[in-house]
Amino acid sequence: MPVKNHRKAGSRTREKTTTKKKTAKATKTAKKPASAKATADKKVTADRPVVKRSGKAPQLLRGMKDTLPADEKYWDAIYGTIHRLAKSFGYGRIDTPILEETGLFVRSVGKDTDIVGKEMYSFQNPSGENISLRPEATASIARSYITHGMLNLPQPVKLWYWGPMFRHDRPQSGRYRQFYQFGFEALGEESPVVDAQLIVVVTDFFKELGLPITVQVNSLGTPESRQTYKTELVSYYRSRRGQLCDDCKKRLNKNPLRLLDCKEEGCQAIRNEAPQIVDWLDDASKNHFMKVLEALDEAEVPYVLNPFLVRGLDYYTRTVFEIWSEGDEDETRQIALGGGGRYDLLVEMLGGRPTPACGFAIGVERVINKLKAEEIAVPETPVPEIFFAQLGEQARIKSLSLFEDFRKAGIPLAEAFSKESLKAQLEIANKLKVKYALILGQKEVLDGTILIRDMEAGIQEIVDQKKIVREVQKKLGVPAQE
Ligand code: HAM
């Protein structure tokens, strides 16, 4: 098949385009009556049905985002890293539904928390049940542990997950209404070593990605010791009520521990003098916390004690921790990369047997934002190095079996089946920056050959179709598969 230099091959098409442009201009200046214009707009080409447009193009919802292929390498790197860690630490994958009974989150995360009180997507389904899009996954996993009688499995039951969560929060950088989390949960084990091991997993994860982090830790004790502390805290804050921001005045009655989370400057100054929860821990919790820290020291995992770390979910007991990108700890925008802790009473609160448990979750988008901001390289997602160009119906049909041969050899091919001309196809190949183009025309289909074109040098060779995969492997330096 004679193959023209694709730059020259385009001259006819270019003429056509120019003529088209002229026609378009003539149409504009001719001032058709409105009805004639409408007819022209509705003109139907032989193979295209009429499209009735209704309204403006749909908009992306506020706080939601599309993830495009340009970010694929980040998602791949994060997923690959955590998947490997899950396997090596013995965690099994769990996927729970995105929709759960609203009551599950009210009872576990807590009705007075921001997450449940303000941010849940809750509604009635057609059967009249009150349901919510999950704002987090720990509650669902505790529910699933009960649903499937996991108590009867060897303990601890170690589970990991990856998926979208929904919170109708005020959108801002790093804060979305749909975001992805991955998390690890170990249920059925009280030992402080589990808390430390989960922190080791987190540390390993960020080390592998090359992102420096700080782990902040604290202990919240038991509900009883926390209650004594809360009373002390409320009395301290009451005496300074006049200096508090409006939100903190509300927190004083509703959720006093959250007073410690306020980022307002005035409230922070008051907080710095506030009583610290560690001084109110019961002996068993204090002992447990000391052992967590001892295990972290032993594993040489650095951490920072933060006596004011309380987390925004009600189910925590004893150890709590948060992961911050190094240098972000004092940020007032509250963009922790992840958080977790122990929730020894949650399974029982939801109707199961007493089951001590501990876990963490990391926000995927926040990790990606940080990797980009810090310009940390992640492995590139492989892109096709070969473009497949076809000319004519027979070649297009034949191409499917050739594609299959390349797929089996693990070599991805790019193509543009909708393009007829070789020029248009090679232009796309150029844009994709592939090294080689394979060209299959009618003649090649008949004599069982195919052309391989070096895109840089513009040189073409004729190859037997049966040998093309091996030939491409040689050119790309890929060893042949046995
Ligand atoms: P959390 O602190 O609410 O904890 O969320 C964990 C992480 O999810 C956050 O540190 C952040 O990276 C990400 N995240 C939260 N909200 C948003 C948002 N609006 N936009 C983007 N990312 C967000 C939990 O969810 C607990 N379930 C963690 C846990 C597991 N505790 C024990 N086990």
Question: What does this protein structure show overall?
Answer:
The chain has 482 residues and is α+β, with helices and mostly antiparallel strands. Helices cover 40% and strands 17% of the residues.
| Unreliable stretches | 1-34, 36-44
How do the strands line up in the largest sheet?
1-5-6-11-10-9-7-8
User: What's the helical proportion of residues?
Assistant: 40-55%
Q: What is the arithmetic mean of pLDDT?
A: 89
Could you give the distance between the termini? 33 Å
Class based on secondary structure composition and strand pairing: alpha+beta
Q: What's the count of strands?
A: 16
- Inertia-based shape: elongated
Largest sheet: 8 strands, mixed
User: Proportion of β residues?
Assistant: 15-25%
Counted by DSSP, the helix tally is 18
Bound molecules: histidyl-adenosine monophosphate
Rg calc? 31 Å
Note the topology.
Elements: H1 6-9, H2 11-29, H3 34-41, H4 72-88, E1 92-93, E2 99-101, H5 102-110, H6 114-118, E3 122-124, E4 130-133, H7 138-147, E5 157-166, E6 178-187, H8 192-209, E7 213-219, H9 223-238, H10 246-254, H11 265-272, H12 283-298, E8 304-305, E9 319-325, E10 338-342, H13 346-349, E11 357-363, H14 364-373, E12 386-390, H15 393-408, E13 413-415, H16 422-431, E14 436-440, H17 442-447, E15 449-454, E16 460-464, H18 468-476
Helix pairs in contact: 4-8, 8-12
